[in-house]
Amino acid sequence: MAVLSELSNRKITCNGGPIHENGSAGALKSPPPVVPRPSIKQQAVSGGTGFLFSSKDYVITNYHVVRGANSILAKFTNGKTVEAVVVAKDPKNDIAILKLEKSPPLSATPIKLGDSSQARTGEKIFTIGYPASKIMGEKPKYSEGVINSMTGLKDDPAFFQVSVPVQPGNSGGPLFNERGEVIGITTASLSLLAIDAMGAIPQNVNYAIKSSFVKNLLSTIPELMIANTGIVVIPNEPGNSLPDFIEQASKNIVLIEAKE
User: How far, in Å, are 89, 204, 226 from residue 219 at the CA level?
Assistant: First the structure.
């Protein structure tokens, strides 16, 4: 039984109007004619978070956010949307790289990927993303916590365990250290299914894939191998504040909508 819950929003929508029958029931002498039923198409919609990397219009997110999608849209903080396609994927580690089909509708400075091997247990971290966007709204949300463990479920070395509060929709969001570098991608939460195994409700047990695995996938795209210029505003530099950083970084963080 799986005990990890993906953090993407997923819903099913049906297209097709109601069926109307003409005529009054009281006036009918024979069974009414059969009215052809319009075809009903089901469409799965997944929502998550992604972030812009490099000046070449690439977005990093979780693979499960865009898995099976025929249409992917990236929505920026100014409300503009850009279509995107998957150009690289690592299903095992739940990473996908998207290429925007045109330049972003605003000038955003790329986010810098940090060295996840230098992170330590107890280090303060935070994320910015789009949790439960259909309910909470489409403005980016900030949440913070610490690294609880340098390994994930069953001591998986590819993941951090973190205390950053996350909700469905946070999947694919950047996990920042205090220097403003991305050291991971918010990926999963310990599911309520774990109650069966633990005998208790998991309390804020979340996971993020380490940036070193993201860099491995980026290295398969030649034009991205040397592109890692970072954001200028760093939270702990004199004269800069965390709110300054959040304002700048949010321009790089997109709401992703994927349709099957």
Answer: 12, 33, 9
Number of domains in the chain: 1
What is the structure's pLDDT at 21?
34
Catalytic residue among 171, 189, 211, 250: 171
Instruction: Quote the domain boundaries for residue 234.
Output: 108-252
Residue 191 sits in a domain whose CATH number is 2.40.10.10
Question: 89 has which bridge partners?
Answer: 96
- Find the range with the poorest average confidence among 97-106, 134-143, 224-233: 224-233
The pLDDT score that the predictor gives to residue 103 is: 82
Q: Is 94 tagged catalytic?
A: yes
Strands (E), 16-123: 41-53, 58-61, 71-75, 81-90, 95-100
Q: Of 8, 64, 143, 189, which one is the catalytic site residue? A: 64
Asked if residue 188 belongs to a domain, the reply is yes
Catalytic annotation on 196? no
User: Is 171 among the residues known to form the active site?
Assistant: yes
Give a yes or no: residue 43 inside a domain.
Answer: no
Specify the pLDDT at position 70. 92
Which of 94, 133, 189, 211 is catalytic? The answer is 94
